[in-house]
Amino acid sequence: MFESFGRGLKLILASIKMGFQDKRLLIPGLMTVFSNFFFAILLFLEAKSRVAVEHSASAKAVSAGINMGKNALQHGNPADIQQLMAKTALNGPWDQGGLQGLSEAASPDAVLAVVAILSVWWLTNRFLEGVTTALVYSHLTEGSGSGRFSTACAAVFSSLPAIITLGIVTLIAKKVARFMRDKRSSGIFGMGINFIASIVEVFWTMAGHLILPAIVIEGTSFWGALKRADRIGQGNLIAIGVGEIGIDTINRLVMLAVCLVGVAGYGALYVYKIPANAPIVMIGGGLWAMAVVLTTAMSIYIRSAFFTCLYVWAIEAEALSEAERVNCQPPAPLAAALA
């Protein structure tokens, strides 16, 4: 137990150490941060365009309603009055606040566009995580600086069908967990269902981080990677738990420190009444934004590197007994990182 606990901590430190040794390992993490910005802006623009269309439709509906109302008042035709009431009634075609308006806002085209953006977003993140895995694996087995970005991308591209399958199964697992939450009852039984749903989400998230190295490193199918991840996970539950908690703690502490620096800088601006367009403010703001981006990229990298290190160690120790694993010698680069 204590050996597994220590192994988890060592793998976290090894991941951080490798990041300082070879800055190229952080490139996929940086690309992930910027791709997240890109897809978030894309979603915002999609929503904005839909709102603009709805506003245009509302304006046309108001204009048509005014004309129809004038005709009904001038001529008093019962048919015109009934038509006006039908159009402006609750959930009618011109009731933009009713279910009809909501259904038009969530049209099939809008839903398809959002699903497409989210799918490509997820696939891009997993692709870049796979590139990180390939680069770290090369670092661990061949030495620092041995990994090539183009080679890592080619390895991930060749495993794209398995990664897409991982995405589909991940979506199903999350949908099942959400369905369990939505259908839970009140009381103790409902709390139990909610707990089980949380367990499903957490364990599948951790399983995904182990499945991806098996897909990228060994080039296996999704189901083969799932079996491999299951074997590795069963023998390293404590190390995985320590890694998840440790990585989250480190990332949150570092991000908290960066945020406090930003708050302190903003406080200094307020106290000393420094204008926002002053050069020192622009330079300081730019440096702080860079720190946020680097911290986020580092947190993404550390998690990918940790599970890759764990995977490489587990491959070496897989054929050994529990007693022999204490003296298991990992590849020389990994041993150097763990030292």
What do these coordinates show?
- The chain is mainly α and 339 residues long.
- The protein has 13 helices and no strands.
- The relative contact order is 0.13.
- About 6% of the residues have low confidence.
Main sheet summary: none
Number of helices: 13
Low-confidence stretches: 89-102, 321-326
The average pLDDT is 78
* Rg, alpha carbons: 27 Å
Keywords: Membrane, Transmembrane, Transmembrane helix
Transmembrane segments: 25-45, 148-173, 185-204, 253-272, 278-302
Features:
339 residues, mainly alpha, 13 helices, 0% strand
Explain briefly what this protein structure is.
This protein is an all-alpha fold and 339 residues long. It has 13 helices and no strands.
SSE topology sketch:
Elements: H1 2-21, H2 27-75, H3 78-88, H4 99-105, H5 108-142, H6 149-158, H7 160-182, H8 187-218, H9 222-235, H10 237-272, H11 279-317, H12 322-325, H13 332-338
Helix pairs in contact: 1-10, 1-11, 2-3, 2-5, 2-11, 5-6, 5-7, 5-8, 5-11, 5-13, 7-8, 8-9, 8-11, 10-11
Keywords: Membrane, Transmembrane, Transmembrane helix
